[in-house]
Amino acid sequence: MGLMIDSNAKFVGRDAIAQVPTPAATASWKPVPHVEVIDAVTDMIQARRWRILDEQYGLARDGQKMFGVIRINRSSSTEWSRCIGLRNSHDQSFAVGLTAGISVMVCSNLAFGGSMVLKRRHTSRIELNGLIVEAIDSLEMEFLTLENIAEDLKSDRLADDEARAVIVRAAEAQAINSRDILPVWKEFKEPRHEAFAEPTRWSLLNAFTENAKKYSPARADVCHRNLTRLFGLDGRQALLW
User: What letter does residue 200 receive in the DSSP assignment?
Assistant: First the structure.
């Protein structure tokens, strides 16, 4: 579905996450249990009558960090489903966060993510609930932005020379490794999924994200964040054309 974890982490279910001990609070920091973050997000999803199709979670650093992807059915297209990415830490390495994404059905690939709509340290479950209500509301606009851009990318055909130039520029921007220029080009010209046979910007994005599946989670994160900015998936002007 899209969650990538490295060798220092493991996929787990909610029951395992609920067993992770939460550190004691300090005067300036009151950590929220990982499972409470998940519960707060799923409560808001269900309150909006969105149906959860599936979900994946991972723990890293002996449970100090939690990551997850929740795929929901509410979407304007049958070609993809909406995804909510979430994270939380008990070691103060990062704040609780939520982001929007799209999972492309044909290749079961998390194609890209939107901007982080919640990225804030929290002090109580009550405050967290309020923040997540606001974040879920913001996610609706992020989803619409991503879906509108995806539709535009599908309608824009690319000549071979333009595609080659885009791939090189993406390598220069460190979205992909330089040695992956040819693999991305080959995926664009000979896609493994028939749905991307048309030479469009959407198909080129798929070529990049297919290539990113072989990256480590950290490298894939850099790749996806750079692609988001380069393709204008964050709603701002694209940098590749």
Answer: B
Q: How far is CA 26 from CA 31, 64, 95, in A?
A: 9, 16, 16
What is the signed CA dihedral for 121, 123, 129, 131, rounded to 10 degrees? -40
Q: Which residues of 51-86 are buried (b: 16+ CB within 10 A; e: fewer)?
A: eeeebbbbbbeebbbbbbbbbbeebeeebbbbbbbb
pLDDT of residue 113: 60
59-73, 100-114, 139-153, 180-194: which range is least confident on average?
100-114
CA 227 to chain CA centroid, nearest Å: 12
Question: Measured between alpha carbons, how far is 117 from 232 in angstroms, rounded to an integer?
Answer: 17
Residue 187: its pLDDT value, please? 97
Strand stretches in the chain, DSSP E = 9-12, 52-60, 65-72, 80-89, 96-104, 109-120
Summarize pLDDT for 138-163 with one digit per residue, the tens.
888 888 888 889 899 999 999 999 99
**From the CB of residue 90, how many other CB atoms can be counted at a distance below 10 Å?**
19
User: What tokens appear for 151 in the block?
Assistant: 């539709």
pTM listed for this prediction: 0.80
Residue with tokens 């000979």, as numbered in its chain: 190
Give the C-alpha separation, 89 to 97, whole Å: 10
Q: Tell me the average pLDDT across 194-221.
A: 89
